[in-house]
Amino acid sequence: MIWFYCTCALLFILKTSSAVDTLLPNQTLKDGDTIVSANEFFELGFFSRYRNVRYLGIWFKKVDKGTVVWVANRDVLLAGFMGMLKFTDKGTLQLFSGNNTLIWSSQPSKTIANINPVAQLLDTGNLVIRDNVTGDFIWQSFDHPGNTWLPGMKIGVDLVTGIQRNLTSWKSRGDPSPGSYTVSMDINGFPQLYIANMKDKSRWHRRVGSANGVGFTGMRGQGQSGFYEFETVYKTREEIYINFTSLINSSFSRMMLNYQGNFRQFVLNSSKWEEYITPFQDECEIYGVCGAYGSCNINNSPVCTCLEGFEPKVPKEWSANDWSNGCKHEIPMNNETGYNFSKFSNLKLPDSRDTWFNSTMSLGECEKVCTGNVSCTAYANTDIRDGGSGCLMWFSELVDMRDAPQGDDSGQDIYIKMANPTFGDKKKTHLKVTFPVVFVVVLITLGLILYAWKKKKNSHDICEDLELPLFSLDKIAKATGNFSINNKLGQGGFGEVYKGVLEEGGEIAVKRLSKTSRQGLVEFQNEAMCIAKLQHRNLVKLLGYCAHGDEMMLIYEYMPNKSLDYLLFDENNSSLLDWPRRNHIINGIARGLLYLHQDSVLRIIHRDLKASNILLDSNMNAKISDFGLARMFKEYETEANTNKVVGTLGYISPEYAANGNFSAKSDVFSFGVLVLEIVSGKKNRGFTHQGHHDNLLGHAWRLYKEARPLELVDAALGDSWTASEVLQAIHVGLSCVQHHAYDRPNMSSVVHMLGGDGALPVPNQPGYYAELTKHEVESTSSMLLLLGSVNDFTITQLDAR
Question: For this structure, is 608 an active site residue?
Fold first, then answer.
C-alpha cells in the first residue's frame, strides 16, 4: 500500500501552472499551482504521500516525478487541499492551512533593510529568497536540507549564523516527517560526515568518512571515476562544509539518507535513477568494530584482523570475537628503537577527529612534519586526485578502518608510524645471548634501577620514567627565539610560557620552570605525572620535556586561540564567542572532565578548573590544561581531605574551602561556575549588580527563582543563541554549584543533560550566593577569600579553618 501512495503522488497534484520560477511580494501559491525552475528540472508545489495530508515541497519535474528532494512542513502536517503559500513584502514565505493557521515560515539567515525581495526556484533545486537589486540571498532551502543532498548544497556548519546543515531521514518510505537518522559533520579535526541514530545519542551509528576529492574514503564504488568532484572547505571563522559537483553536464546526481539510515547516491541515466554507490550494509559498518589499529573485512572470518605489525591487546577477548580493545604495536614504540612508516593501501581512512591537516602540502612534506612530531601516529593525503595532495596527520590511535573490497579502489593509502623493524631482529638476537652476558645485563639494570630510585625526586627522572620524549635545550631555544619576550604567552607561579616553532614545522607551547620557584617544581612534577598518560581531544597534549642543568620545561601543543578567559571576559573579543561556539566549549569541557573522573587510566581530580585553564585550539575546541594542582585517586577512592586548600578564588567548592574535603564533585562545582560564566560573559569573582550584593551564582539563582533566567545571557551573543539550549545550560550550571556535594550531579549525568537526554532535576540553592551588606563585605574579607570575591590568583597554600 505504501508503494501505491509513493508512485501515485502525481494523482494528488491538482494542476500545473505556467512555467514561472519566481514569486513576487504579496503573491500567493495555492494548492494545485506550481513554480518550475527555468531549466524545468525542478518543481515546487503541494503534494501528498497519504490521502488528505499535504506537504509543500520540491521534486523533479520531468524525471520520476515521485522523487521529492525537499519538504517545508516536515514537522507540521497540512490537512486537506486548501493550503496556501504567501510571500510577504518583508521577504518571508508563510505557509497557511485552510483555516488560515500559520504552520510554517522561512526564517531569514540575515536581516537586510530596504530590500526588494523575490522568491525563486533555481536550476539547482534551491528555493531562495533574494534581494532583486543586490542579488544577496536572504534565505535558501539549501540551508535547511531534508533527506536529499543535491550538487552545490553544503553539508556542514556556518560559524557566523550558527546554521547546521544536516540531512535528516524520513520517518518511513512514504512519510516525510523527520526520522531517526541524521548525517552531520564533525569538525574536531579534519571534517568528516557521520550518521547518528537520534534514539541513541551516545554513539555514532556509522561514519561516512572524510571527503577525498572524488568521494568519501572507503565508500564502495567511489573510486577515481572522474564523474564527481568533492570539496572540503575550511574557513576557521566563517564556515566548514563539504559539497560536491557533477563534472559531466549530461549527468545528474543526488545523495539520499533513507529511513533505514543508509547513505546512498544515485545517478540519472536515460530518465532513470541508477544507484551509483551501493552503501555497505554489513558488520564492518559498525563504528569502531575492530578497535584501535584493527581493520574490518567482511570477506574474512572473523571480520576483524590487526594490521600487519600489530597484535591484539587482549588475545583472549580477540579469540572470543570481542575486538573492542583493538590492537597494539608488536614492537613497542620508543625513542631508542627509532621508527619508520609502513604503507597500508586501499583502506578506509580512520576516524579523523584527532587530526591536523594542510591542503597545500605534499606527501613528502607531510612525512617530514609527522616524523618531527613525536605525537604523530600516521599521515595520508587529504585529496587523492591527480596523484594525491594535501597532508592529514593523526595524533592518537587509529580507529574505524576497513579494507576496500577486492577490485574496488575506494580506499586510500595511509602511512602508519612503526618501530624500526631492525629492532625486532635485535630482540631475537638478545634472546640467544649466553648466561654470563644476561647476568651482567641484569646487574647493570639493577644498578640503573637503584640509581633511578635514589634520584626519584628529580623531575628529569620522573619524565624519563613516564617515557616522555626529550627535547634538547638547543632545539627549544631556537624554537622560542632564545625565549624572546615577543614569544612570551603568559606567566604563573611555576614560571613562564613561551610560543615556539620547531625547525621541522609545528607550533609548540613551552612551560619553563622558574629557577626560584620551589612550589613550581612540585607542580611541575605533578603535572608531568598526571597528564603524561592521558589522551583525550578535550585535554591539552603533553608532547615532551626538556631537562638541561637547572632548566626544566614541559612541551605542549600550541593553542592559537589562547585561553577562554582571554576571549570571554574581554569586551572586544567576547563577540568572537557566539552561542554555538560557547555551547561547543561547554560540552567539550564536560567531556574532558568525564574522561578525567571516569574513563581515563587514572582517576584524576583537577582542583583548579577555571576559564584561564581552558585553552582553545584553531577550531575553538576546549582543552583542559594546567594539571599542577591535580590529584590522582585510586580506583576505590572517592574523596580525600587536606589541610592545605589549593585552587582559584571564585571556583572552589564550599566543602573544600571550609573543611579541606575534595572529590570529583569539587570539580563539578568549578564546572558549574564556568558554565554560568560562559553564558553570562561575567566573572563569578568580582561580579557586581546595582540591585543586590550577590555574586554571579547568587544572581543566576535569583533570576532562576523569579522565572527570568534568560536575563543572564551575555549581550555580546546578539541573536546567535537558542533559548532552549541556553536554558538547559543555565539549569545544568545551577545544578553543579549546589551547596552540598551530594546534590550535585556527576559528570556522566552532566554530559547526558547537556545532550538533552532525560529530564533536568530541580536545583537547590548554590553555595556562596547569599546577599551581603556593604558592612558585611568590608568586615568579612578573610571569608571572601574563600568566596572568590576579592582576588583572582591561584591559591597554592591556604590553611582550611
Answer: yes
